[in-house]
């Protein structure tokens, strides 16, 4: 049972993964776990089928020396090396995916009802790497029959500010060779092929190293995606994004990553709700990047 602000919460308890404190959620619809380091969702298991939706590396590091491999990392206020309003040549010294996934977050609020548990967290440090301290971030997790992750950015300054961001979700797909992606089509930028543009063939299957940015247009919005696996179906709903990133390192790259096993690429696939083109927030404006997993 978790105690915060002199109140006890029956669905939330304190736990840990090695050196990292976590929140464990158990309610009438699901179980889940959040690491306070990075506000990182580690697990979501609906009671309806008792099947884990998220992939977490068996060799993930839980000592704050590096980001956690798997689950849902939060990339903010930039994604990959896409630092808004800065020349790419200046980005070599920036940490990949922003500065909030490698710091502790604090609990702002826990709300419980008969149908859901909602937890709101915010990072301990803002205003790093040239970003304004007036640019605020928080994340709201709602656990029920589905899991909702809402990354909220508020521009409390008097001028417009730009961000890129992503919910870098790793999904447990059982077998990548037998997994089909439904709801993503059209052209994509292939990061494994000098960022050349290609048209996605259907059915959408993964058969090699994959790092693709699918940009939304008038014909493709990528709001509803389904992963069809031999023994499960994962539903993904997204809002507030301008693109979806699909990533799998495949075997050769997995072997170079200490926090992934050589063959762990077989049972994971990243489907990332992303802002890669940059979102401009006017003074006092708020933006929400949302992913709902079922």
UniProtKB/TrEMBL annotation:
Its EC number is 5.1.3.15. The active site is at 168, 272. It holds the Pfam family Aldose_epim. It catalyses: alpha-D-glucose 6-phosphate = beta-D-glucose 6-phosphate. It is an enzyme of class 5 (isomerase). Transmembrane segments: none annotated. Keywords: Isomerase. GO terms for molecular function: carbohydrate binding; glucose-6-phosphate 1-epimerase activity. Gene3D superfamilies: 2.70.98.10. CDD domains: D-hex-6-P-epi_like. Belongs to the glucose-6-phosphate 1-epimerase family. This is Putative glucose-6-phosphate 1-epimerase. It comes from Brumicola pallidula DSM 14239 = ACAM 615. The lineage of its organism: Bacteria, Pseudomonadati, Pseudomonadota, Gammaproteobacteria, Alteromonadales.
